[in-house]
Design a protein that fits this description.
The chain is mainly alpha-helical. The chain has a single domain, classed as Four Helix Bundle (Hemerythrin (Met), subunit A) (Up-down Bundle), CATH 1.20.120. The chain has eight helices and no strands.
């Protein structure tokens, strides 16, 4: 997988998340929205990889995670995010929502009961909004570095 592939996957996963949400499948929507952010961060990591350079073992190992906070660090974007959230409260709130995502959400069920179902719809909508919002928007912010 290369940088362009990760970029395409990031966009595709967000489109799929919106489609699943519209079809009343919040679990899949939630998972794919977060997975889109993971792919976007991996595109940033790929950008930092120099052609023909042998990568450090730690960088390779650290890149093979689903933890968005760790991927942010490996991508070299942690300090930039700290600076940008200081000037953009929407980005700060959006990142706080997005960083709660986990690949373990692929096993989650939101609709065990009617209250949980609405909670799941709200969780999925909140994550999708945080990923794509115009004022904050974690994916919009990552695109500047990929």
């Amino acid at each position: 997988m290369n940088r362009a592939g990760f970029q395409q996957l990031a966009e595709l996963r967000l489109q799929e998340a919106r489609a699943l949400f519209a079809a009343d499948f919040p679990e899949g929507a939630y998972y794919l929205a977060g997975y889109g952010v993971e792919c976007a961060l991996k595109a940033c990591i790929a950008k930092r990889t120099r052609e023909h350079d042998f990568p450090e073992k730690k960088l390779v190992i650290d890149s093979h995670t689903h933890d968005l906070g760790k991927l942010l660090d490996v991508a070299g974007l942690s300090d930039l995010l700290k600076n940008d959230v200081a000037d953009n409260i929407e980005l700060k709130l959006d990142w706080e929502t997005v960083r709660e995502w986990s690949e373990q959400s692929r096993y989650g069920l939101f609709d065990d009961d009617p209250i949980g179902h609405w909670s799941g719809l709200a969780s999925a909508q909140s994550l999708i909004d945080a990923v794509e919002s115009k004022k904050g928007g974690v994916l919009r912010w990552i695109r500047q570095s990929w």
